[in-house]
Design goal:
- With about 230 residues, the chain is mostly beta strands.
- It folds into 2 domains: about 120 residues, no CATH class; about 70 residues, Immunoglobulin-like (Sandwich).
- The chain is about 5% helix and about 40% strand.
- A hairpin with a 4-residue loop joins β17 and β18.
- It is elongated.
- The N and C termini lie far apart (about 60 Å).
- This is Por secretion system C-terminal sorting domain-containing protein.
Length: about 230
């Protein structure tokens, strides 16, 4: 039978090992977890996530499955793609796309609970179908995802306990209420990454120009929290 590979693209930082774990579409993919690792960012600073191992894992009668999630700037949406071939992703198939949870400022894809991940039946109906749009009842997707219009990813965490101060800030911004931080990124309001480093409760932002920024805090259990702050 023809080998089908699937590729999912997601936002994150390769340096800090950001990942997404997906389980769904059991008719085609089987009841198993697929781990997507961030391999870099595209021209719009959106994360690109590809399943590991790169050469795929056993996947029902389809042979080897490889997945990728990536941003489609032309259509302004995140897409879940399937590479039909040997991992080149030259002519991938569209499996899902998010129709309502997209955010141009978000650097990572939306969670299942945010917006609507629509099944592309033009492809999946030929292979047994995936059972419709992704929902918490038929699939799970965790990791480096955003779940609000502010692109804040928060997987079962109490974000109210996390604080950043002072705000506005002149030199050093402090973080409290988090004990499992792994990395931080700071983006300007055009979505450009301006600072990235290992997590610390004190971050020197004195070199930044005056303006509004977004601070993204990544944790060791693949959660992320985002806060806007003003640099004096």
């Amino acid at each position: 039978m023809k080998k089908i590979s699937f590729l999912c693209l997601v936002l994150g930082s390769l340096a800090f090992g950001q990942t997404i774990i997906f389980n769904g579409c059991h008719n085609i993919f089987d009841d198993q977890n697929f781990v997507f690792t961030k391999t870099g960012v595209d021209a719009y600073n959106k994360g690109i996530y590809i399943t590991t191992p790169l050469d795929g894992q056993p996947c029902g009668g389809l042979g080897s499955c490889e997945f990728k999630i990536q941003w489609n700037n032309t259509l302004s949406r995140w897409e879940f793609l399937a590479d039909e071939g040997y991992g080149t992703f030259t002519n991938p198939n569209l499996i899902y796309y998010n129709s309502t949870g997209n955010n141009n400022f978000a650097q990572n894809p939306p969670a299942i609970t945010f917006g609507t991940w629509v099944e592309n039946t033009l492809f999946t109906s030929q292979s047994g179908g995936c059972g419709g749009n992704l929902t918490p009842s038929n699939a799970t997707m965790t990791g480096d995802l955003h779940s609000t219009s502010l692109a804040t990813s928060d997987v079962n965490a109490d974000i109210s306990k996390i604080q950043i101060f002072p705000n506005p800030v002149a030199d050093v911004i402090r973080i409290s209420g988090i004990n499992n931080g792994q990395s931080i990124q700071i983006y300007n309001m055009t979505g450009q990454l301006v600072k990235s480093e290992v997590f610390d409760s004190k971050i020197n932002v004195s070199e930044l120009s005056s303006g509004v920024y977004l601070l993204k805090i990544n944790t060791k259990n693949f959660q992320s929290h985002e806060f806007k702050f003003v640099k004096k």
